[in-house]
Amino acid sequence: MTALNVKDIFNDLHQIPEVGFQEFKTSAYLADKLEALGYEVTRNLGGTGVVGIVKGAEPGPVMLLRADMDALPFVIDGEHKAIHACGHDAHCSMVLAAASLLKDKVKRGTLKILFQPAEETLGGALAIIDAGVLEDVDLAVGLHIRPVQDLPFGKLSPAVHHSSSTFANIKITGRSCHGSRPHLGVNAVETAAAIINAAAAIKVNPTVAWSCKATAVKGGGSAYNIIPDSAEVTFDVRSETNEDMTELLDKLRRVAENVAEAYGAKAEFNLPGGVIPAAVLDPALTAEVAECIKEVAGEENLAEELKNPGGEDFHYFARTYPNLKSAYFGVGVAAEPGLHDPNMHFNPDGLQAGVDVLEKITLKKLG
Ligand SMILES: [Zn+2]
Ligand SMILES: [Zn+2]
User: How far, in Å, from the CA of 30 to the mean position of ligand 1?
Assistant: First the structure.
Protein backbone atom coordinates (compact mmCIF):
# COMPACT_ATOMS: atom_id res chain seq x y z
CA MET A 1 0.00 0.00 0.00
CA THR A 2 1.49 3.33 -0.98
CA ALA A 3 0.71 6.33 1.16
CA LEU A 4 -0.97 9.17 -0.71
CA ASN A 5 0.82 12.52 -0.59
CA VAL A 6 -1.30 15.15 1.11
CA LYS A 7 0.04 18.01 -1.00
CA ASP A 8 -0.65 16.15 -4.27
CA ILE A 9 -4.25 15.55 -3.22
CA PHE A 10 -4.56 19.18 -2.19
CA ASN A 11 -3.26 20.39 -5.56
CA ASP A 12 -5.85 18.22 -7.33
CA LEU A 13 -8.80 19.25 -5.15
CA HIS A 14 -7.87 22.93 -5.17
CA GLN A 15 -8.45 22.95 -8.96
CA ILE A 16 -12.07 21.74 -8.67
CA PRO A 17 -13.82 23.94 -6.08
CA GLU A 18 -17.56 23.26 -5.89
CA VAL A 19 -20.20 24.79 -3.62
CA GLY A 20 -22.37 22.92 -1.12
CA PHE A 21 -24.30 19.87 -2.43
CA GLN A 22 -22.68 20.43 -5.86
CA GLU A 23 -19.41 18.65 -4.97
CA PHE A 24 -19.77 16.18 -7.87
CA LYS A 25 -16.17 16.14 -9.12
CA THR A 26 -14.74 16.43 -5.62
CA SER A 27 -16.76 13.54 -4.22
CA ALA A 28 -16.09 11.35 -7.29
CA TYR A 29 -12.35 12.02 -6.93
CA LEU A 30 -12.38 11.14 -3.22
CA ALA A 31 -14.59 8.06 -3.66
CA ASP A 32 -12.37 6.74 -6.49
CA LYS A 33 -9.23 7.20 -4.38
CA LEU A 34 -10.80 5.47 -1.37
CA GLU A 35 -11.94 2.59 -3.57
CA ALA A 36 -8.46 2.23 -5.05
CA LEU A 37 -7.08 2.06 -1.50
CA GLY A 38 -9.39 -0.88 -0.80
CA TYR A 39 -12.10 0.83 1.24
CA GLU A 40 -15.69 -0.30 0.92
CA VAL A 41 -17.21 2.89 -0.50
CA THR A 42 -20.74 4.28 -0.56
CA ARG A 43 -21.44 7.33 -2.72
CA ASN A 44 -24.21 9.94 -2.87
CA LEU A 45 -25.02 9.86 0.83
CA GLY A 46 -27.14 12.86 1.83
CA GLY A 47 -26.54 14.25 -1.66
CA THR A 48 -22.85 14.12 -2.54
CA GLY A 49 -21.47 12.55 0.67
CA VAL A 50 -18.95 9.70 0.53
CA VAL A 51 -18.22 7.08 3.18
CA GLY A 52 -15.37 4.59 3.08
CA ILE A 53 -15.23 1.71 5.55
CA VAL A 54 -12.50 -0.65 6.65
CA LYS A 55 -12.99 -3.21 9.42
CA GLY A 56 -10.49 -4.71 11.81
CA ALA A 57 -10.43 -8.45 12.58
CA GLU A 58 -11.28 -7.92 16.26
CA PRO A 59 -14.31 -6.20 17.76
CA GLY A 60 -13.96 -2.57 18.79
CA PRO A 61 -15.44 0.90 18.45
CA VAL A 62 -16.67 2.55 15.27
CA MET A 63 -14.53 5.61 14.65
CA LEU A 64 -15.31 8.29 12.09
CA LEU A 65 -12.88 10.77 10.54
CA ARG A 66 -14.75 13.62 8.90
CA ALA A 67 -13.78 16.21 6.32
CA ASP A 68 -16.06 18.76 4.67
CA MET A 69 -15.85 19.13 0.88
CA ASP A 70 -17.53 22.38 -0.16
CA ALA A 71 -16.07 25.64 -1.45
CA LEU A 72 -17.64 29.09 -1.04
CA PRO A 73 -19.55 31.06 -3.69
CA PHE A 74 -18.17 34.49 -4.65
CA VAL A 75 -19.04 37.06 -7.29
CA ILE A 76 -15.82 38.53 -8.69
CA ASP A 77 -15.93 41.11 -11.51
CA GLY A 78 -19.54 40.13 -12.08
CA GLU A 79 -18.66 36.45 -12.43
CA HIS A 80 -19.91 33.69 -10.13
CA LYS A 81 -17.00 31.66 -8.85
CA ALA A 82 -16.53 28.86 -6.31
CA ILE A 83 -13.32 29.26 -4.29
CA HIS A 84 -11.85 27.07 -1.56
CA ALA A 85 -11.60 30.02 0.84
CA CYS A 86 -12.25 27.99 3.99
CA GLY A 87 -9.71 25.24 3.34
CA HIS A 88 -12.14 22.34 3.01
CA ASP A 89 -9.93 21.00 0.19
CA ALA A 90 -7.15 20.86 2.81
CA HIS A 91 -9.40 18.90 5.19
CA CYS A 92 -10.28 16.32 2.51
CA SER A 93 -6.58 16.04 1.64
CA MET A 94 -5.56 15.37 5.24
CA VAL A 95 -8.32 12.82 5.84
CA LEU A 96 -7.67 10.99 2.55
CA ALA A 97 -3.91 10.90 3.16
CA ALA A 98 -4.58 9.56 6.67
CA ALA A 99 -6.97 6.96 5.19
CA SER A 100 -4.15 5.78 2.90
CA LEU A 101 -1.88 5.27 5.94
CA LEU A 102 -4.57 3.55 7.99
CA LYS A 103 -6.06 1.09 5.51
CA ASP A 104 -3.91 -1.87 6.56
CA LYS A 105 -3.39 -0.89 10.19
CA VAL A 106 -6.93 -1.17 11.58
CA LYS A 107 -6.89 -4.21 13.87
CA ARG A 108 -10.13 -3.77 15.82
CA GLY A 109 -13.44 -2.03 15.35
CA THR A 110 -14.37 -0.08 12.24
CA LEU A 111 -12.87 2.98 10.61
CA LYS A 112 -15.33 5.17 8.73
CA ILE A 113 -14.00 7.91 6.50
CA LEU A 114 -16.63 10.59 5.83
CA PHE A 115 -16.44 13.27 3.15
CA GLN A 116 -19.35 15.53 4.01
CA PRO A 117 -21.12 17.95 1.67
CA ALA A 118 -22.23 21.51 2.31
CA GLU A 119 -20.71 22.54 5.64
CA GLU A 120 -20.95 26.21 4.70
CA THR A 121 -24.73 26.03 4.24
CA LEU A 122 -24.85 24.19 7.59
CA GLY A 123 -27.13 21.61 5.97
CA GLY A 124 -24.55 18.97 5.10
CA ALA A 125 -24.12 17.37 8.51
CA LEU A 126 -27.89 17.07 8.92
CA ALA A 127 -28.18 15.40 5.51
CA ILE A 128 -25.48 12.92 6.54
CA ILE A 129 -27.29 12.24 9.83
CA ASP A 130 -30.54 11.70 7.90
CA ALA A 131 -28.70 9.20 5.69
CA GLY A 132 -27.96 7.16 8.84
CA VAL A 133 -24.16 7.44 8.62
CA LEU A 134 -23.74 8.33 12.31
CA GLU A 135 -26.03 5.69 13.76
CA ASP A 136 -23.31 3.21 14.76
CA VAL A 137 -20.50 5.72 15.37
CA ASP A 138 -18.85 5.81 18.82
CA LEU A 139 -16.07 8.31 18.16
CA ALA A 140 -15.91 11.16 15.66
CA VAL A 141 -12.94 13.37 14.85
CA GLY A 142 -13.04 16.54 12.76
CA LEU A 143 -10.43 19.17 12.00
CA HIS A 144 -10.02 22.62 10.48
CA ILE A 145 -7.08 24.67 9.32
CA ARG A 146 -6.84 27.88 11.36
CA PRO A 147 -6.19 31.42 10.25
CA VAL A 148 -2.82 32.85 11.32
CA GLN A 149 -4.60 35.01 13.91
CA ASP A 150 -5.63 31.80 15.74
CA LEU A 151 -2.55 29.62 15.30
CA PRO A 152 0.95 30.29 13.99
CA PHE A 153 2.36 27.98 11.33
CA GLY A 154 3.23 24.52 12.65
CA LYS A 155 1.19 24.69 15.85
CA LEU A 156 -1.85 22.53 16.45
CA SER A 157 -4.69 23.04 18.90
CA PRO A 158 -6.37 19.95 20.39
CA ALA A 159 -9.82 21.57 20.46
CA VAL A 160 -11.78 24.23 18.62
CA HIS A 161 -14.83 25.12 20.69
CA HIS A 162 -17.28 26.59 18.20
CA SER A 163 -20.26 28.55 19.41
CA SER A 164 -23.91 27.92 18.91
CA SER A 165 -25.26 30.29 16.27
CA THR A 166 -28.48 31.08 14.50
CA PHE A 167 -30.44 33.87 12.92
CA ALA A 168 -33.81 34.82 14.29
CA ASN A 169 -36.29 36.36 11.90
CA ILE A 170 -39.15 38.47 13.27
CA LYS A 171 -42.05 39.38 10.99
CA ILE A 172 -44.12 42.28 12.30
CA THR A 173 -47.67 42.89 11.20
CA GLY A 174 -49.29 46.25 11.95
CA ARG A 175 -52.11 48.15 10.23
CA SER A 176 -51.65 50.62 7.41
CA CYS A 177 -53.43 53.94 7.06
CA HIS A 178 -52.88 57.41 5.62
CA GLY A 179 -49.66 59.06 6.78
CA SER A 180 -51.66 62.08 7.89
CA ARG A 181 -53.76 59.94 10.28
CA PRO A 182 -51.14 57.75 12.02
CA HIS A 183 -53.38 57.20 15.06
CA LEU A 184 -55.69 55.05 12.90
CA GLY A 185 -52.96 52.51 12.09
CA VAL A 186 -50.13 50.54 13.70
CA ASN A 187 -46.69 51.43 12.38
CA ALA A 188 -44.71 48.21 11.81
CA VAL A 189 -41.44 50.10 11.19
CA GLU A 190 -41.70 51.88 14.55
CA THR A 191 -42.47 48.53 16.16
CA ALA A 192 -39.35 47.03 14.56
CA ALA A 193 -37.23 49.91 15.92
CA ALA A 194 -38.67 49.38 19.41
CA ILE A 195 -37.90 45.64 19.24
CA ILE A 196 -34.28 46.36 18.24
CA ASN A 197 -33.91 48.78 21.17
CA ALA A 198 -35.54 46.45 23.68
CA ALA A 199 -33.36 43.54 22.54
CA ALA A 200 -30.28 45.54 23.52
CA ALA A 201 -31.38 45.17 27.15
CA ILE A 202 -31.35 41.35 27.04
CA LYS A 203 -28.80 39.83 29.41
CA VAL A 204 -27.59 36.28 29.94
CA ASN A 205 -24.73 34.83 32.00
CA PRO A 206 -21.83 37.26 31.54
CA THR A 207 -19.21 34.54 32.15
CA VAL A 208 -19.93 33.02 28.75
CA ALA A 209 -19.47 34.88 25.48
CA TRP A 210 -22.70 35.65 23.66
CA SER A 211 -24.14 38.26 21.33
CA CYS A 212 -27.51 39.20 19.93
CA LYS A 213 -27.72 42.00 17.39
CA ALA A 214 -29.99 43.09 14.55
CA THR A 215 -28.31 42.59 11.18
CA ALA A 216 -31.16 43.30 8.75
CA VAL A 217 -34.31 45.42 8.69
CA LYS A 218 -36.89 45.54 5.94
CA GLY A 219 -40.22 47.33 5.83
CA GLY A 220 -42.41 50.10 4.53
CA GLY A 221 -41.34 52.26 1.66
CA SER A 222 -44.02 51.35 -0.91
CA ALA A 223 -45.15 54.94 -0.45
CA TYR A 224 -43.75 57.38 2.04
CA ASN A 225 -47.16 58.75 2.98
CA ILE A 226 -48.59 55.39 4.08
CA ILE A 227 -48.14 54.02 7.59
CA PRO A 228 -46.44 50.66 6.92
CA ASP A 229 -48.22 47.51 8.04
CA SER A 230 -45.32 45.11 7.71
CA ALA A 231 -41.66 44.98 8.67
CA GLU A 232 -39.06 42.36 9.27
CA VAL A 233 -36.03 42.32 11.59
CA THR A 234 -33.33 39.66 11.59
CA PHE A 235 -30.92 39.08 14.47
CA ASP A 236 -27.62 37.22 14.38
CA VAL A 237 -27.45 35.33 17.69
CA ARG A 238 -24.47 33.45 19.14
CA SER A 239 -23.52 31.84 22.41
CA GLU A 240 -20.68 29.71 23.68
CA THR A 241 -23.06 27.21 25.29
CA ASN A 242 -26.25 25.53 24.16
CA GLU A 243 -27.95 26.33 27.49
CA ASP A 244 -27.34 30.07 27.17
CA MET A 245 -28.45 29.98 23.54
CA THR A 246 -31.80 28.53 24.62
CA GLU A 247 -32.19 31.29 27.23
CA LEU A 248 -31.13 34.00 24.79
CA LEU A 249 -33.63 32.91 22.14
CA ASP A 250 -36.40 32.60 24.69
CA LYS A 251 -35.77 36.19 25.85
CA LEU A 252 -35.56 37.52 22.30
CA ARG A 253 -38.85 35.85 21.43
CA ARG A 254 -40.52 37.40 24.49
CA VAL A 255 -39.11 40.84 23.66
CA ALA A 256 -40.40 40.59 20.09
CA GLU A 257 -43.86 39.35 20.99
CA ASN A 258 -44.44 41.64 23.96
CA VAL A 259 -43.07 44.82 22.41
CA ALA A 260 -45.19 44.17 19.34
CA GLU A 261 -48.21 43.68 21.52
CA ALA A 262 -47.53 46.93 23.39
CA TYR A 263 -47.61 48.70 20.02
CA GLY A 264 -50.77 46.91 18.90
CA ALA A 265 -48.84 44.86 16.33
CA LYS A 266 -48.12 41.13 16.01
CA ALA A 267 -44.67 39.56 15.87
CA GLU A 268 -43.99 36.16 14.36
CA PHE A 269 -40.68 34.69 15.58
CA ASN A 270 -38.84 32.12 13.46
CA LEU A 271 -35.46 30.39 13.28
CA PRO A 272 -35.44 29.57 9.56
CA GLY A 273 -31.94 28.06 9.53
CA GLY A 274 -32.33 26.06 12.75
CA VAL A 275 -29.85 26.48 15.59
CA ILE A 276 -26.28 25.30 15.05
CA PRO A 277 -25.21 23.59 18.27
CA ALA A 278 -22.16 24.69 20.22
CA ALA A 279 -19.26 22.25 20.41
CA VAL A 280 -19.61 19.66 23.16
CA LEU A 281 -16.26 17.90 22.83
CA ASP A 282 -15.26 14.86 24.85
CA PRO A 283 -12.54 15.90 27.33
CA ALA A 284 -10.83 12.48 27.39
CA LEU A 285 -10.69 12.15 23.61
CA THR A 286 -9.48 15.77 23.39
CA ALA A 287 -6.69 14.96 25.88
CA GLU A 288 -5.68 12.02 23.69
CA VAL A 289 -5.58 14.29 20.63
CA ALA A 290 -3.31 16.64 22.62
CA GLU A 291 -1.01 13.66 23.34
CA CYS A 292 -0.93 12.82 19.62
CA ILE A 293 -0.04 16.43 18.77
CA LYS A 294 2.89 16.28 21.22
CA GLU A 295 4.09 13.02 19.67
CA VAL A 296 3.74 14.29 16.11
CA ALA A 297 4.85 17.90 16.39
CA GLY A 298 6.59 18.19 19.75
CA GLU A 299 5.33 19.70 22.97
CA GLU A 300 6.33 23.21 21.86
CA ASN A 301 3.79 23.01 19.02
CA LEU A 302 0.84 21.99 21.17
CA ALA A 303 -1.30 25.15 21.34
CA GLU A 304 -4.08 26.05 23.77
CA GLU A 305 -7.66 25.01 23.13
CA LEU A 306 -9.39 27.62 20.94
CA LYS A 307 -12.73 29.33 21.39
CA ASN A 308 -14.46 30.27 18.19
CA PRO A 309 -17.60 32.45 17.82
CA GLY A 310 -18.22 30.81 14.43
CA GLY A 311 -20.48 27.82 13.84
CA GLU A 312 -19.58 24.34 12.53
CA ASP A 313 -22.22 21.78 11.62
CA PHE A 314 -19.98 18.86 12.76
CA HIS A 315 -21.40 19.48 16.24
CA TYR A 316 -24.83 18.25 15.11
CA PHE A 317 -23.35 14.75 15.36
CA ALA A 318 -22.84 14.82 19.15
CA ARG A 319 -26.04 16.86 19.59
CA THR A 320 -28.05 14.17 17.77
CA TYR A 321 -26.26 11.20 19.36
CA PRO A 322 -25.40 12.17 22.96
CA ASN A 323 -23.34 8.99 23.48
CA LEU A 324 -21.07 9.84 20.57
CA LYS A 325 -17.70 11.18 21.74
CA SER A 326 -16.21 13.83 19.53
CA ALA A 327 -12.97 15.74 19.13
CA TYR A 328 -12.17 18.61 16.78
CA PHE A 329 -8.66 19.93 16.37
CA GLY A 330 -7.08 22.93 14.67
CA VAL A 331 -4.10 22.89 12.32
CA GLY A 332 -1.83 25.95 12.05
CA VAL A 333 -0.94 26.51 8.40
CA ALA A 334 -0.68 30.33 8.50
CA ALA A 335 -3.90 30.87 6.54
CA GLU A 336 -4.02 34.52 5.44
CA PRO A 337 -5.58 37.07 5.29
CA GLY A 338 -8.39 35.08 6.91
CA LEU A 339 -10.90 32.32 6.19
CA HIS A 340 -13.76 33.21 3.80
CA ASP A 341 -11.54 35.76 2.06
CA PRO A 342 -11.40 35.01 -1.70
CA ASN A 343 -7.62 35.47 -1.53
CA MET A 344 -7.18 33.07 1.37
CA HIS A 345 -3.93 31.15 1.04
CA PHE A 346 -1.78 29.12 3.39
CA ASN A 347 1.37 27.06 3.61
CA PRO A 348 0.51 23.44 2.65
CA ASP A 349 3.71 22.22 4.34
CA GLY A 350 1.66 22.36 7.55
CA LEU A 351 -0.83 19.71 6.39
CA GLN A 352 1.29 16.62 7.06
CA ALA A 353 1.11 17.24 10.82
CA GLY A 354 -2.70 17.08 10.57
CA VAL A 355 -2.42 13.76 8.68
CA ASP A 356 -0.10 12.36 11.35
CA VAL A 357 -2.40 13.39 14.21
CA LEU A 358 -5.36 11.74 12.45
CA GLU A 359 -3.34 8.55 11.98
CA LYS A 360 -2.13 8.48 15.59
CA ILE A 361 -5.47 9.15 17.27
CA THR A 362 -7.11 6.49 15.08
CA LEU A 363 -4.46 3.88 15.91
CA LYS A 364 -4.89 4.61 19.64
CA LYS A 365 -8.50 3.41 19.25
CA LEU A 366 -8.38 0.90 16.40
CA GLY A 367 -4.75 -0.16 16.12
ZN1 LIG B 1 -16.16 28.33 6.38
ZN1 LIG C 1 -14.70 25.74 7.12
Answer: 20
Say how many Å lie between the CA of residue 339 and the centre of ligand 2: 8
**Under 8 Å between Cβ of 145 and 154:** no
Q: Tell which residue, 290, 297, 285, has the closest CA to residue 356.
A: 297
Centre of ligand 2 from the C-alpha of residue 120, in Å:
7
Residues of the chain with pLDDT under 70: 1
Element (H, E) at 358: helix 351-366
Distance 262 CA to ligand 1 centre (A): 40
CA 177, 179, 181, 183 torsion-angle sign: positive
Angle at which helix 88-102 crosses helix 6-14, to 10 degrees, equals 140
Ligand nearest to the CA of 116: 2
The CATH homologous superfamily of the domain defined by 6-162+279-366: Zn peptidases (3.40.630.10)
pLDDT at 1: 61
Ligand 2 centre to CA of 258 (Å) is: 38
What is the CATH architecture of 164-270?
2-Layer Sandwich (3.30)
